[in-house]
Amino acid sequence: MVLRRRAGGRDDSPIGAAVRKRPNLLAGEDLPSEPRQKRSLEKRPRLKAAGLALFGEKGYERTSIEEIARRAKLAVGGFYQHFRSKRQLLLVLMDELLEKLSQLELRPRARGDVRAGLWELLSVAFSHDLRYLGAYRAWQEAVLSDPGLAKKQLEIQAWTTARVTAVFQSLQQLPGARSKVDVPGLARAMDSFFWNLLGQAVHLPRVELNQWIDSATHLIYHALFLDPKRRRPK
Fold first, then answer.
1. Sorting pLDDT into bands at 50, 70 and 90, what band is 112?
2. By C-alpha distance, which of 191, 156, 195 is closest to 24?
3. What is the pTM (predicted TM-score) of this model?
4. CB 134, CB 51: distance < 8 Å
5. Residues 19, 164, 116, 123, CA torsion sign
């Protein structure tokens, strides 16, 4: 789903270009100034962890600022030292998710078992995404009633679809790839599938999630690559 620029330099490949366009969900947000005292700084991770947990358990609307503060073992005033609203906390968490995604090393293998490489790409991506399941569950709910968040969701979808497209275009250059594939269409379909699966993953045991990853790997491989020719028995 996501790729990282080459270490130590600028990556001008299609993949590198897609990386640089990560949506900044905090653009224009009037975040409170970061506290200078160490004790106050330590409160922010606790609030974010509490928000992730409660968003995952109860969703966006049913989670209150009071509950977040209480879960973080802080007074409500401590919440407002770091975030002006529940919406702003959600934006911070989702922006962190996008940053994590942009840093993942998911470059297609040029050699070896392509199918195994695909499975590894998806497995690693989901292992990072799962840490933010609570935020994504809340985000799915919030965008339905917040036009500003819905607009940001379109930006996220455009970015992730571009990244999936870049990955598929790279895979299409490997030996054995099909030459006539609607890569943009396949990328849109698989990107939508990945996000829908992430939204459901909060309720899925890891074994079942791995089964979904297996299915996605199989689908992508057979969409992009020709089946190896079987040798005729002598």
1. low
2. 156
3. 0.82
4. yes
5. positive
